[in-house]
Amino acid sequence: MKLPRIHFPLVPTSRAAWLIAALAPIAVVIAATAPALWLTAPAAALVLVLMVIADGLLAGKCREWMIQPPADAEVGQPVTINAFAKFSRRVSGEIEAAMEFDPRLDPTGRATLHLVADEDGDFYSGKVDVHPVRRGTAPIRRIWLRWSGPLGLGARQQSKLADKEIRIWPDLSPVRSRELQAFMRDSQTGLIARRIRGEGTQFEALSEYEPGMDRRRIDWKASARHNHLYARENESERDNQIVFAFDCGQAMCEPVDGMPRIDRAVSAALTCSYIALKGGDRVSLFGFAQRPQLMTPFISDSRAFYRLQSSAAALDYSATEPNFTLALATLTSKLKRRSLIVLFSDFTDPTAAELMVESIGRLVTKHVVLFVTIADSELETFIAEEPGDIATIARSVTADTLAHQREIVLQRLRRMGVDVIEAPWDQIGYQLIDRYLLIKNSEAIG
Q1: Could you tell me the fold of the domain covering 173-191+238-441?
Q2: How far apart are CA 331 and CA 285, in angstroms?
Q3: Main-chain dihedrals φ then ψ at residue 230, nearest 5 degrees
Q4: Which site from 112, 234, 322, 428 is most exposed, i.e. has the minimal number of CB atoms within 10 Å?
Q5: Is the pTM of this model over 0.85?
Q6: pLDDT digit string, tens, across residues 378-405
Q7: Distance, CA of 364 to CA of 362 (rounded, Å)
Q8: Whether pLDDT at 425 is above 80
Q9: CB count in 10 Å sphere of residue 18
Q10: What percent of the chain has pLDDT over 70?
Q11: Domain ranges of the chain
């Protein structure tokens, strides 16, 4: 026969536990020196238990309480979760709320917050900040509320299922940054749609040649007819196809400064995507690990940027090695015209990178390839360590060897015609934007 679950809402506080611990040695001394007074100890314990129960009853009843998390959050950015409660009387003791949630929200999987009263004393509220470390949907499973009596010895406690969840999206704080918004206002690919002269491949007009202009822009036939130097002005190259390809394998899921490399890459790619869409280009996302995970259609309207954000949020983490041969062959078969492919990846040794180099070599023959990797700050730290003992020396030598092998792989890619970006995670987004604009303005894509 299954017994019913008994829920007892009164619990002792930490103050009561410390008081019991302090009285225990006194009881031992009394039992050793005056055995006739042994009843004093159980009597005192009974009185203390009664005080805990009475204090818990004096704490009052909770009429209602709840937590209010936001529906959406961004990985790496703080998220504020609020808690609210109403009681039958003013609570003079401490009020605590706790919650258990998915480790995506915080590696500890739990959070505690204190509630304070408003001016009237009937409504109590508190908040806590958590820092999401992975994309996805993070449920908040269960919440607890505990409030103590006026003596701080007894407390009441309630718990219930939360039935709440937070959708964690890629980090778009660089897109909202003042620097990027100022760049968008001032750059030639700004927010105002207009015909841009001076770059690109499509002829726009002739203008008189002036000192300082690029001599390659001189139209010699027109200059011969008019007996004066004229230069060609072209319309800026637009409608290019830009593919951001993400390696979602094991190396890219390792953390860098508290967040997986793939999330750093997604944030940089979405920032550059925003620039590309404003500049009139078409953007697609491609993700792969052992097999292709995601291939979005090309987006050409900046108002559909949310579709790229939603697709990037669906990129899954994988603990396996990526299959570059299958992934890049699949990507090549889906592209019908020359495109700029921005590949985010990482590698730990030359052997693991060999297949990657071969696959990229086949890709370069048809497309413009930009390889982006996050600089390994851990290797640089090991190399810079002072050689105080044998273990430190061995670690420094190993790190230096890995860094040298890594540079060899990047040099091989450069010799194949691949443009390479290797930078710290906090600089990679801006370097990617600069390199994208440089490639676009050099007319290398179309």
Answers
A1: Rossmann fold (3.40.50)
A2: 10
A3: -125, 145
A4: 112
A5: no
A6: 777 777 778 778 888 888 888 788 888 8
A7: 6
A8: yes
A9: 10
A10: 88
A11: 1-169, 173-191+238-441, 197-235
173-191+238-441 and 1-169 share a CATH fold:
no
Return the residue matching tokens 């790619």.
Answer: 269
CATH number for the segment(s) 1-169: 2.60.40.10
Positive or negative, the CA dihedral 172, 174, 175, 177 is positive
* SS3 of the chain: CCCCCCCCCEEECHHHHHHHHHHHHHHHHHHHHCHHHCCHHHHHHHHHHHHHHHHHHHCCCEEEEEEECCCEEECCCCEEEEEEEEECCCCCCCEEEEEEECCCCCCCCEEEEECEECCCCCEEEEEEEECCCCCEEEEEEEEEEEEECCCCCEEEEEEEEEEEEEEEECCCHHHHCHHHHHHHHHCCCCCCCCCCEEEEEEEEEEEECCCCCCHHHECHHHHHHHCCCEEEEEECCCCCEEEEEEECCCHHHCEECCEEHHHHHHHHHHHHHHHHHHCCCEEEEEEECCCEEEECCCECCHHHHHHHHHHHHCCCCCCCCCCHHHHHHHHHHHCCCCCEEEEECCCCCHHHHHHHHHHHHHHHCCCEEEEEEECCHHHHHHHHCCCCCHHHHHHHHHHHHHHHHHHHHHHHHHHCCCEEEEECCCCHHHHHHHHHHHHHHCCCCC
Torsion angle, CA of 289/293/297/302, rounded to 10 degrees? -70
Residue 144 CB contacts under 8 Å (≥ 6 apart), including other chains: 97, 98, 99, 157, 158, 159
Residue 20 contacts residue 28 (beta carbons within 8 Å): no
Sign of the alpha-carbon dihedral angle for 325, 331, 335, 337: negative
Residue tagged 């002269």 (tokens): 197
Cα–Cα nearest to 276, from 236, 316, 247: 236
Alpha carbon distance 162, 142 (integer Å): 5
Rounded to an integer, what distance in angstroms lies between the CA atom of residue 247 and that of residue 327? 9
Quote the pLDDT of residue 47. 79
Cα-Cα end-to-end distance for the chain: 77
195, 203 contact by CB (below 8 A): no
Of the ranges 52-56, 233-237, 317-321, 355-359, which one carries the lowest mean pLDDT score?
A: 233-237
Q: What angle do CA 151, 156, 158 make, to 5 degrees?
A: 160
